[in-house]
Amino acid sequence: MDLRPIGVVIGPSEDEVNRNMWKGGVKGIIKVYEEFKEGLLGIENFSHIIVISWLHKITEDQRKILIVKPLRMTDLGYKLSELPTLGVFASHSPVRPNPIGITIVKLTKRQDNLLFVEGLDLYDGTPILDLKGYYPYQSKDVRVPEWSKKLRSKV
Amino acid sequence: MDLRPIGVVIGPSEDEVNRNMWKGGVKGIIKVYEEFKEGLLGIENFSHIIVISWLHKITEDQRKILIVKPLRMTDLGYKLSELPTLGVFASHSPVRPNPIGITIVKLTKRQDNLLFVEGLDLYDGTPILDLKGYYPYQSKDVRVPEWSKKLRSKV
């Protein structure tokens, strides 16, 4: 089960990413390494792509954490006591046993091995593991937790 | 960049999975290993979850392939000549440099460390790398390739 990065994020400062986390993300470039470039054939026909990344800032110790609070929500003005306590698998916390990130981004332009995207929540230098064309998932009965509906009302 | 399975798929026969690939997938169980069970806290409040898996049947040689045809579509009655030639990153082919699968499934029941789900396209024994609560992605301007709209009309 070994992974090989197929590309890397070229993005703005961490500060800018953090500031825009709740505002639809930032603009950036996904640079696919030359040896994997062929795999991009036809990707420009998708308006959105799924970006699978390795959250490289997560430490070995953080990978042992199984219970979290969605701390980033304090950016929205919430107090710690107002945030739910969650298992990592019920959250999108970057802290988790396998720090794999999933982001759906808008693909605005492809220039050879460079993908210009909007909606990134990833830092400059984040290794990319995989890309997949995005198809909207259709289901009428999607339900999200109450805490989430309430807290996200501030976004 | 090492991965540790956090669970495993308990599912029906491969034959059944393949037969139902275009019919919304199969029912199965995701068994989360005891040591990671705590990470499930609150997951039952989501109707749907994102399942991130390691497509364990992909060989080292298949990980070098960058151009594919969506061969599974021959199940729908298409001839090989009717199928587009695609880069792996523009497809959801299991053949890709990092054989990571993403499936959105319906969570019908949680029983301790067992998650009963519907909509699986994974084989019995597939290692699970991560789970995340599913939030519907909202975008008005999602566009998918013409070939896909045409071919999927048979589903």
Automatic annotation (TrEMBL), chains A, B:
Is the S-adenosyl-L-methionine keyword given for this protein?
yes
Q: Which family does it belong to?
A: Belongs to the tRNA methyltransferase O family.
Citing just one GO molecular function, the answer is: methyltransferase activity
Could you tell me which NCBIfam families the record lists for this protein? tRNA_TsaA (TIGR00104)
The answer to whether the entry has keyword S-adenosyl-L-methionine is: yes
Its name, as the record gives it, is tRNA (N6-threonylcarbamoyladenosine(37)-N6)-methyltransferase TrmO
Q: Which domain of life is it from?
A: Archaea
Instruction: For this UniProt record, give its keywords in alphabetical order, as a comma-separated list.
Output: Methyltransferase, S-adenosyl-L-methionine, Transferase
| InterPro entries named in the record | TrmO-like_N, YaeB-like, YaeB-like_sf, YaeB_N_sf
Choose any GO biological process term that the UniProt entry carries and state it. Answer: methylation
Domain TsaA-like positions: 3-143
